[in-house]
TrEMBL record:
It comes from the Eukaryota. GO terms for cellular component: mitochondrion. Residues 178-187 have a biased composition (Low complexity). PANTHER family: DNAJ HOMOLOG SUBFAMILY C MEMBER 11. Coiled coil: none annotated. The keyword Chaperone applies. This is DUF3395 domain-containing protein. It comes from Macrostomum lignano. Keywords: Chaperone. One of its GO terms (biological process) is cristae formation.
Length: 224
């Protein structure tokens, strides 16, 4: 929008609309001479009309569009997470017998036995994590996934961006209260790996960040 004022042109308002590489213009003659009232109307009325259209039409439409986009993105993420979960659970089913064989072999010689391992949005200050039974929870059981990685009573996983890419792992859905501080006993807003294991007949426990390396056993993990 532009307004042109002059003794030869009077008061003229020009409305412009750009669509891609094209520009549409509509000139409006408000007055044939320099009329102060026409100047005021030519300036104030379009601005007022723009404000009304923006607030009553464009802003509600934009808010609805953004909400629909967020909803579609959430549905897409949920669908992708469900697919990865199904793939991981299938892998866990295939590795179950191998994990049991490894567990029995390690136990027979006092080696490394993964008693319990959970991955997800854990409350980092709790002494005992209770694994939820709901498969769509924010914490998943990865005990067998780690046991099959035990080699000669040792388990090593290099540091990485996330452990969700390990066989049998997947990224669980964050809990609704993930924004709550873990110091209050609520779930953390980052993923962790909790491992309870037995080595040489002694109980051990360690809580690791998602990107931390895993090296078992270690004396400092022993439970007093």
């Amino acid at each position: 929008m532009s307004i042109r004022v002059g003794p030869n042109v009077g008061v003229r308002l020009k409305l412009s609309l750009s669509r891609g590489n094209q520009v549409y213009a509509m000139p409006i003659v408000l007055s044939e001479w320099m009329d102060p009232a026409a100047i005021v109307y030519g300036t104030a009325v379009p601005l007022l009309a723009y404000a009304v259209v923006y607030k009553c039409i464009y802003a509600p439409w934009l808010a609805k569009f953004q909400q629909q986009s967020r909803s579609q993105q959430s549905d897409t993420e949920a669908s992708g997470r469900a697919a990865r979960q199904a793939e991981a659970l299938s892998a866990q089913s295939l590795m179950r017998q191998s994990a049991q064989n490894s567990r029995e072999s390690e136990r027979s010689r006092g080696g490394l036995v993964i008693d319990r391992a959970v991955y997800g949005y854990l409350a980092t200050n709790e002494a005992d994590q209770q694994l939820p039974s709901d498969s769509s929870s924010s914490v998943i059981d990865v005990t067998d996934c780690l046991q099959i990685l035990v080699d000669q009573s040792h388990l090593e996983i290099p540091a990485s961006l996330t452990k969700a890419d390990l066989p049998g792992f997947y990224d669980p859905a964050p809990p609704p209260s993930s924004s709550t501080s873990s110091s209050t006993g609520a779930a953390s807003d980052t993923r962790h790996l909790l491992i309870r294991y037995t080595f040489n007949g002694t109980a051990h426990s360690v809580l690791l960040g998602d990107g931390d390396s895993v090296r078992l056993p270690q004396r400092r993990h022993a439970v007093a």
